Amino acid sequence: MTDHLDTDTNAKTMTIIVTKGSLDWAYPPLILATTAAAMGVDVTLFFTFYGLEILKKKLDLQVTALGNAAMKMPMMGMHMTMPNIINMLPGVDAGATTMMKNLIKKKGVASIEDLREAAIESDVKIIACQMTLDLFEYKPSDLIDGVVLGGAATYMERALKSDINLFI
Amino acid sequence: MADKTLDAKGLNCPLPILRAKKTLKEVPAGGTLEILATDPGSVADFAAFCRTTGNELVESTSDGGVYRFVIKHVA
């Protein structure tokens, strides 16, 4: 396990704690991780709580419109915002997710699947929080291959030696 | 003439950089990679990418909404 997390000691390093599992919040950690890796940075991602959703073999990430007060979607040349009383209705998240996925495709933005694949290809180290697996009753086999299980101490060891540490 | 050309038109951040990094591996040291992109953010991004990785940005131009970068593979 330690071998798997060994790094080139000369490279700059970055860690990100990934705590969010909605479609929109999955982007920032994966974009930063893949880009940093492309720039020669040694990257470790620590997935905890809802962030674990991003590691599921079968991804089903949704946009959550409720309480997302600043969320505006382009529509018919304008930007549409919706009050919470509408956003709480069943089907709104599904609709917003479909809309977001269509925009992602239309604008040439990578899918989360592609970015995750790129992260693995570029040797980004992936740690899944063991405690969260226990808490939410997930099995390691629910997650993609190449994931290392660990806890706060595993993360801290890497964070202490790292040039950049982010929490998303 | 560059040794290799990457068409990254229509792709958005961070895909032009990720594809360029991947394609750069296929270019021999000292060789050049030409990248065509339509993402306006790629102008600043390729400059930063080259400064950070030690590769040389030989050219950065634009023509009719298409950005053209030439990177010399150094590192």
Determine the CATH topology of chain B.
Answer: Translation Initiation Factor IF3
The overall average pLDDT of chain B, rounded, is 95
The number of distinct structural domains of chain A comes to 1
What's the architecture of chain B, going by CATH?
Answer: 2-Layer Sandwich
The low-pLDDT segments of chain A are none
Q: What is the quaternary state of this protein?
A: heterodimer
Low-confidence residue ranges of chain B:
none
Under CATH, the homologous superfamily of chain A reads: DsrEFH-like
- Estimate the helix proportion of chain B, in percent: 25-40%
Shape field of chain B: globular
Helices, strands, pairings?
The complex is a heterodimer of chains A (168) and B (75).
Chain A (H helix, E strand, L loop, with lengths): L1 H4 L7 E6 L4 H16 L3 E6 L25 E3 L2 E3 L3 H4 L4 H15 L5 H10 L3 E5 H6 L12 E3 L1 H9 L3 E4 L1
Parallel strand pairs in A: 1-2, 1-7, 2-5, 5-6
Antiparallel strand pairs in A: 3-4
Helix pairs in contact in A: 2-5
Chain B lengths: L3 E5 L6 H10 L7 E6 L4 H12 L2 E8 L2 E7 L3
